[in-house]
Each structure stands twice: as structure tokens, then as C-alpha cells.
């Protein structure tokens, strides 16, 4: 496979990590960025030591025959439209999360990809975290047996000190606690314990003067396809350091973050701690974007699915929409959602 040329949409915090990950590779190139602010984009590229074209209009970038793939770090409200256009142009797609802000947008992408099957990966980037790799390997090796209870927490005080706060606090672009960030925890439940069949959720505000246009806190209870149960909590306004807690109870053992108790260690008297890199920072430079891009490139070259392609991530997004529907209605919601 020749060098893959990327157009990265956006120049923000997360886009910067994708730019660095692509630029570091021998088999890929940052061919272009898309930004309405050309001077800022040029400054950002200079800071990263990247020489690339700057497109003001996404439509021009995706129509360029030199572009092989796009990275969608645009605001989430326009991602479906951009993804549909990229698929129709035959461009491979790297999605940042959330993939869409509603079911209709998500399903529009699905229909476009079914008609134009390009290669995809979705930015549930913790799937490439070293501690996640360990946990997944232990589960696949039957270290804890069937996971009958999964509890995962996303606690991250996302306030005015974060650049994205100005738009992520709005219902139009932030959407909900789960869509904004808690979706990482929902995805982790699916990744470790399997598919979700039923959702019941509750939410609340933290402070009376909160600027969030939606409940910044949510808890969802799941019925899992494997007969087990799950729980996710998401808090975007909290007095705590960043926490991503992973507690898994299996028929033959348990995992608490990087601690293991397993039937495979018959003389064990207490949890064993596994040295690793935990998902314990909200700083995107801590997240494994380089590994995500590496998986995208290797799976494209090998003509296999990426670790988290669109149709896999789509099920996480549907679970998030079900959570929000349960929050709004006060009723349980069954999955999968039925496409209209």
C-alpha cells in the first residue's frame, strides 16, 4: 500500500493529537487540514512542524483526488453530513466521538457506509489504552469467566478551564453527559462485558448555577445480553480529580482497574496489581491516538476490521441515545434501537 494521505478536519486539541500521530508515520501523510481560520491553522501546523494544504471548505478537501482518508474532528453536529459525503467520495474515515448527536444522523452514516463500504475507525480511544489491553486479554483468557456485573465510571470536571466547554455545555453540541464524554464508559461496558439489551437511567445537576444546558450527571443501569447487569456513571461537574473506574465481577474472578483476582492463581490471598498505564487523565496527550491510527493503518492494509469500526461504535452510540431517552421519559428502553 502506498502512502495514505489524510485530510484532518479541525485544528483543536484532539485534532492536534491525530496530526501528530499521522505525521510520525512513514506510511501516512498529513496532506491537508480543513479550517475556516486559515491563519490559526497555519500557526498550528507550524508548531507541529507539518507542511500541508489548508482547505477552508470541507467539500473541496473531500473532493480532492489526492485525499485518501479524512479525520473528522469537527463539531459533532455536522459529522454525519461530512461522513456521508466522505463515504460517497470513497474516502476512508476516522471518526472522533460522538459519531452523531441523534439517531437520524447515526443511521444516515450507516446507510452511506453500507452503500459505500470504506474503511473506518471510531475514536473510542481508550480501547487502545495499555490497561484496557490487559483487561481484554485477561477476559479472553478466561481469567475471570463470564462478566456478570460491570461498573464503570467517568468522572471529569469539564468546566471553563477547558476550551471546548464553551460549546460542549450546550444541548446542541454537547448533547448530554453521556454523549459529551460518558460514552467512553458505555463503550467500555460493551468492550468488556458484551452487548446491552435494556437501559434505565437517571440524571441530576450538580450546582444550581450550572451553565450546562443538560443534567451534567447521569447513571445508567443495564441488562446485558449475557444475562448479567451493568452500571455506568458520568459526571462532568464534580469536585474530584479525573477518574475512570473499571470494576468487573466474573464467575471466576474480578478486575478492579489494574488489580486482578483470578481462579488461575489458586494460592492468591489478595488482589494482584499489574503495572501498566491506566486511563487516569483527561489530558488528550495521555490518550493512545497513535495506537488508534496504527490499528487503522494495519487493518486497512490487512483488509480486516479495525478494533472499533463505525458499526461497532454505532452500538455504543445507540446505547447512549437509549440512556438519554430513558432520562427524558423515565422509562426503560430496549436495544438495539429500530432503524426508521
Automatic annotation (TrEMBL):
SUPFAM superfamilies: Glyceraldehyde-3-phosphate dehydrogenase-like, C-terminal domain, NAD(P)-binding Rossmann-fold domains. Residues 4-118 form the Gfo/Idh/MocA-like oxidoreductase N-terminal domain. Residues 134-255 form the GFO/IDH/MocA-like oxidoreductase domain. Pfam families: GFO_IDH_MocA, GFO_IDH_MocA_C3. GO terms for molecular function: nucleotide binding. Transmembrane segments: none annotated. This is Putative dehydrogenase. It comes from Cohnella phaseoli.
